[in-house]
Amino acid sequence: MHEAIILANWPSCLNSLAWSHDCILALAAGETVELLIPVLSADSDDVDTGLQGTQHWINVHIRTNQFTSTEVPPIDPLPLRASSVGEEISTSDTSLIEWSPPGLAKHARCALAVLTTNLTLSLWVSDSDPKVTRSWKRVLILNHELEMYFQELYAQEEFRLELDCETRRRLRRRIRSFAWSPQLRPPPPSQYSVQEARFPINGSFIAVSNDNNDVVILRIDSPYSFFSPPSAKWSARAVAHFSLEPKLDMHQGPRLFLLAETLSEQRFITNLAWSPWTIDPDGVPTAILAYTTNCSVHLRRVRIPPFSADVSLDQTDVFSDSSAGTRNVHLLRWMPKARDDVFYLVAFSQAGAFCFEVPCLDPSKTTVSTHDLDGRWDTVSGCAFNGLFETEPEVQFLSQLTAPVEATSELKLPVPPATESRTPPFQQSIRDSEKLFSAENELAGHTHTKAWAMCSSPMGDLVASGVSFHPGDMVEYTIAATSRTHIGIQPFHDTAGAFRLPASGGMCPVEDLSAETLIYCTKTWLEELPEESRAESAVRSTILEQFWRALGLSNDHDDDPVVGYPEARADGLDLEERTSLAQALRRAVYYNDRSILKQRYGRLLTLFFDPKGTTQSDDAPAIQKLVTEVLKLPRSSYNDSEASRKIRTVYSSMLPWLSDAETDGMDDGAVETSTDKHVEECEICDDSIGFESFAWARCGQGHEFVRCSLTFLAIQAPGISKLCGICGKRYLNEEFVVRTDKLAGVAEARQSGDSSQQDVVMPDADGGQQEGILPSTEANVTAGEGSSKQGGSTGQDRAPAVDYGRSPITLARILFAACDVCIYCGGKFVG
């Protein structure tokens, strides 16, 4: 295989590739981040991809090195002991990138964290269509929160000179490394199916290290996260930290003149890695934060209770090891999933490769196995974990200068005493590209290869590597316009033409397995088949069988029992109850019915081969399942509102159109009103709109509108809808529905002219509160102690923590939270 993508630039750092759960491949390339978004159709010849030589990827450029004076204020140089050329005069090139788990950005997508050489960490997200460059925005700079956090934490700190205060402040706000926390869910069994999917039980966290030997854990809130407080905007809040000693002595007597002395000075933590989550014997979610100092690898335990912003860190490391033996560990990575209750951590340095076997329940019993990497001296620039392993986990890696010829490019985990030398497909692909470059430039084989990065696909079935080629026997004269990076995408091992996906999502939690990932993996295999055989029924059967395998479904898997719904109390539902409610509805709509699963993924495959190959009748099973399950929700489980009443009424009006709909278990009111005519007013002429079609709505005067494919309300204005990125179904935007919704009691009071009734403002999903729509008294901003913890003790008081508390939740919010991807094909939304 499989594919070679050529980008017109060079990477600006090692480990410069990152592949998101949305199936977007990102490359750190100097002043920009290059995004590669797969084209998800079999016929892509007419797509403008922005790339030469491939029609399978769309290239999007994000300029990440431009900051306003508010984002990064102008600064004066610091004394030599604390100066940083990067912070003061760098061009702010990209030095590290990593995708967040899904769900933080709009439409349940991933956010991209970008660390630049001015030591600034920022978050980038798309606010509409990821394929459009202008949709990508910088929404948050995390350095600001670090600065405020330490200013409050050390408010009474005394300094001899004002310059010392400024120096320490700058050291604390500089960010050197970071690591995202994996999605926090109850730990699943090693092999489980999408029908046993687990909803996250907490928000998004990121660990960062600064120039002052501190590691800080930040909670990230966004307007789109299910776990963010009402009316949240993009924000970061430090919730825990720990420090290493000694700190930089700003008044040290003689300067360090010996190189060895300078290098031995512990200035900052160079690598961070966050393990998957497990549950400790007390029932508290626990993970391991790995970090590296000058010559050691350390493990420290992190605990975060479910549905809480409180984070506690052990006061001391549970394990440390100095066998890495050098100041610089090139790469530190956890395997994304535990195996047999063991986490695997790999570290690469000039001393070799190290595998740490970390027991989930007792990390202090960690064992280490090593490999000398054949005595190579160059840096390991990337690694990838194989999601298709059968018995032992496996990691592949490449070195910066010897990638085409290195004898060892893959290792079993734990590392066995003797390793078998073989050439994996990615290495052979690099050799082939190297020969082609030599022939095109008449170099007679004198070619030098630089390997910049490696990463695996979300499931771990494919590996991407980024390399550049250069003349090997002469001085290279070049300009930026002639820079080229070759990104090769290969399977981990030769599959002999067979199509095989990892079981139960492979390295990806099966809950996060996106339709985009499945389609891309299918497309890479089909490209290897003769064109005339791609549409054969046997090929489609093979693909659907592998979809089933990736979703963890076996032929003897029974449908899950219906999950009970929690009932709302007068003071509303707490966050745990809301999560249970949304999870129950999601399972019922998406996963519990095997026939609906088959229909959804069959439709997905049909859309891949022929985007116009489906009809409205194909939608009926999904619509019927959605309507019946929503009408089974007891009204006591949510607060009544105008939008909730409209949705229930239109769903009830649809029952006569759904001949096979089962009314058992539905609320009595739903069945009784099923014959009532649904009345929705036309915003043009105020005439009523009856129900005539699942796809469109029309008033008595003939004004016609598209119906939302989820609420089935008419979309009567521009700019208030989104659409599925795969099948094109149109939906109302959650922000619009929530922003204009009102609790039923308030609406009735307004209609009756009772001006003494207090308005109740619904929490706005897009980050603001609309005047006159839901109460500030319901926002539940609770004051109290700050949640910053170190070693289980509460830190100094900070600003009041924003918490969900008990606030009203309506049917509309439940519906949009449960159905955050297309109910017909599983595609993610754009717009």
Automatic annotation (TrEMBL):
Name the segments for region: Disordered. 749-800
- InterPro entries assigned: GTF3C4, TFIIIC_delta_N, TFIIIC_Znf
**Transcription factor IIIC 90kDa subunit N-terminal domain residues:** 19-490
Composition bias of kind Polar residues appears in: 777-791
* Residue ranges of every copy of the Transcription factor IIIC putative zinc-finger domain listed in the record: 674-829
| Pfam families reported in the protein's UniProt record | TFIIIC_delta, zf-TFIIIC
A GO term from the CC aspect: transcription factor TFIIIC complex
According to the lineage, what is the superkingdom?
A: Eukaryota
Q: What's the protein called, per UniProt? A: Transcription factor IIIC putative zinc-finger domain-containing protein
GO molecular-function terms, A-Z: histone acetyltransferase activity
| Gene Ontology biological process | transcription initiation at RNA polymerase III promoter
